[in-house]
Write a structure and sequence with these properties.
With 291 residues, the chain is α+β, with helices and mostly antiparallel strands. Helix content is 40%, strand content 18%. The strands form 3 sheets. It has a 5-stranded antiparallel sheet with strand order 2-1-9-8-7, sandwiched between helices. The chain has a two-stranded antiparallel ribbon with strand order 3-6.
Length: 291
């Protein structure tokens, strides 16, 4: 593993990003650390904490995953996917809302679930699992409202201006939901070892995480039919993240969290997306070589 930190630094630099990574063998505890305790705004990665909280409350009998919730068109949290992009009234179960929240990062579904479980419950779950650097501070709709306020009258067009980016509270870990790479791999390890919730609920969460549709970040580093990648992305201006678990056919299981930030304000940054998979592969290869 001796050259792994250097290879990671080179990969991040070549992609034009600052990156922070933690990778851990879920079964042996061997790890790769590249800024693992750096605090970063989580963006939609924090939906993973909502997912665990929902299943923890279900395991305790405080709610039923099949419970129905209504989602009228008015007041939906904005977003390009799922319920957020739909036009008509919808009714669905809590577990189906969780599927949309994780598979297509549906902001409306996430806020429906947050309204049901509460921010305090999400933070209690994080504390129970030892995620000392992780905290949720607001609904996703409130985060987007804050971005609109901070951007000013020019709206989304202003997000191309680095001076506007610098004042976005959603990008400041002091005022936004935040975590660290180490906390996220700790959480993923707990899900995969059935420590976060009883096995029935752990299996449900692992299934949902395996249904994420985005293949251009973490999964891009593992283009093999027999390697399974399950994860959750997070995206805001200048931020590209993904956390997930990579499973090999020989039974190896590796939790990986990659958080990146760039000075570039473009909405489409293929190199920043791709380096998440590249960095994850470097780290997992190092862990497998040390087995």
């Amino acid at each position: 593993m001796t050259d792994t930190p250097g290879r990671l630094r080179t990969a991040f630099a070549d992609a034009g990003v600052t990156g922070w990574l933690h990778a851990v063998d879920i079964d042996t505890g061997a790890q790769v650390d590249a800024g693992a305790d750096h605090t970063v705004p989580t963006a939609s990665v924090h939906k993973l904490c909502v997912l665990v909280t929902l299943h923890e409350l279900a395991a305790r009998g405080e709610l039923e995953l099949t419970e129905r919730i209504a989602c009228p068109p008015d007041g939906r949290t904005p977003g390009p996917t799922g319920l957020a992009a739909m036009l008509d009234p919808v009714e669905l179960s809590l577990r189906d809302a969780a599927f949309l929240m994780m598979s297509v990062s549906d902001n409306t579904a996430a806020d429906l679930l947050l309204d049901r479980v509460g921010l305090d419950a999400v933070n209690r779950t994080s504390a129970r699992l030892g995620l000392t650097g992780t905290r949720a501070v607001q609904r996703f709709g409130a985060m987007l409202d804050g971005m609109r306020e901070d951007a000013g009258p020019a709206g989304a067009r202003a997000l191309a201006d680095p001076h506007v980016i610098a004042r976005l509270r959603a990008l400041d870990p002091a005022t936004a939901g935040h975590s660290t790479p180490r906390d996220m791999t700790r959480l993923l390890g707990a899900i995969w070892r059935d420590e976060a919730c009883p096995p029935e609920y752990g299996a449900a969460m692992r299934r949902i995480l395996g249904l994420q549709v985005w293949p251009h970040r973490l999964a891009a580093g593992f283009p093999f039919d027999d390697v399974h990648v399950a994860g959750k992305t997070g995206t805001l201006p200048t931020l590209r993240h993904e956390v997930g678990v990579v499973e090999y056919p020989d039974g190896g299981r590796y939790a990986v969290a990659v958080f990146t930030r760039t000075a570039h304000t473009a909405a489409t940054l293929p190199r920043a997306d791709a380096v998440i998979g590249t960095a994850a592969r470097i780290a997992v290869d190092a862990l497998r070589a040390g087995r």
